[in-house]
Amino acid sequence: MDIVRQSFAIVVVFALLWTALSFLRKKGWAKMPSWAGIRRTKTASGLLESRGKLMLTARHSIHLIRIGERNMIIALHPDGVTFLGDALPAADGKRKEMATS
Fold first, then answer.
1. Residue 15 and residue 46 in one domain
2. Residue 50 shares a structural domain with residue 92
3. Do 27 and 51 sit in the same domain of this protein?
4. 86 with 74: CB under 8 angstroms?
5. Which of 43-47, 85-89, 91-95 has the highest mean pLDDT?
């Protein structure tokens, strides 16, 4: 019977934690963790922003990030990060090209 009481206590504690988290999310005091979904992220000052991501393989991806007014294309791979170039904003909003520098 001791195991039943301990199991019941654990279930009650997790139910209370879930209820508290639901209440805090409803009030806007708790946010979803970053692993819960992919969305655009901004820092409080708006200096760093993820603009897009392309997964090539499970361990290789290309990211478009904005730092201040600069858009950069970077590649992430198991050996690290590689800067691919600057993304120039299109004048007509249709096409983006990579700057060579």
1. no
2. yes
3. no
4. no
5. 85-89
Instruction: Name the nearest CA neighbour of 83 among 99, 97, 95, 59.
Output: 99
What is the domain extent for residue 59?
35-101
Q: Judge if 7 and 27 occupy the same domain.
A: yes
* Cα–Cα dist 44/67, whole Å: 13
Q: Supply 1's token pair.
A: 């019977």
Is the pTM above the cut of 0.70?
no
Other Cβ atoms closer than 10 A to 35: 6
Tens-place pLDDT, residues 48-74: 888 889 999 989 999 999 888 888 999
CA distances from 20 to 8, 14, 26, 61 (A): 18, 10, 10, 37
* Domains contained in the chain, number: 2
